[in-house]
UniProtKB/TrEMBL annotation:
The lineage of its organism: Bacteria, Pseudomonadati, Pseudomonadota, Alphaproteobacteria, Hyphomicrobiales. This is MAPEG family protein. It comes from Afipia massiliensis. Keywords: Membrane, Transmembrane, Transmembrane helix. It is found in: Membrane. The chain crosses the membrane at residues 6-22, 64-91, 111-130. Pfam families: MAPEG. GO terms for cellular component: membrane. Its main location: membrane.
Length: 136
């Protein structure tokens, strides 16, 4: 059961990737940006395209620590119910974070979702470490 939240989080990356493609393609077709302006960098993209792109890029930052934790917990047989439940909470916070980032980009809501996810992930790591080190 611990792999299901992993798959759902990976799905978020693909959703954002395809959304980024759609928004960027639309920006080029609508002449909001020229290919020559974005061929070498990201700064020229319109705001909406930049938001979706940043939301996509964020999936390769904090979630990496989640993927590592699960990759370690599985073979070490430490992926118990607590890890599974916390995994779902983390994944939900990532969907909220990405949703806010790619739409309204409300900084307060986005930061709240990020902070909640980071806190949950920290708790997961501490729990995992204590389970290993103290054999609980």
């Amino acid at each position: 059961m611990v792999l299901l939240p992993v798959f759902v989080l990976v799905l978020l990356s693909f959703i954002l990737m395809f959304r980024m493609f759609t928004v960027r393609t639309g920006a080029i077709k609508n002449r909001e940006v020229r290919v020559s302006e974005v061929a070498v960098g990201q700064k020229a993209w319109p705001t909406k395209a930049a938001q979706v792109s940043n939301a996509y890029s964020n999936q390769f930052e904090l979630p990496v620590l989640f993927f590592v934790l699960i990759a370690l917990a599985l073979p070490l047989r430490q992926a118990d119910l607590i890890i599974v439940l916390l995994s779902w909470v983390f994944v939900v916070t990532r969907y909220i974070h990405a949703g806010v980032y790619a739409t309204s980009n409300n900084l307060k809501a986005r930061f709240s979702a990020f902070a909640a996810g980071a806190l949950v992930l920290l708790i997961m790591w501490v729990y995992f470490a204590l389970k290993l080190l103290l054999a609980i």
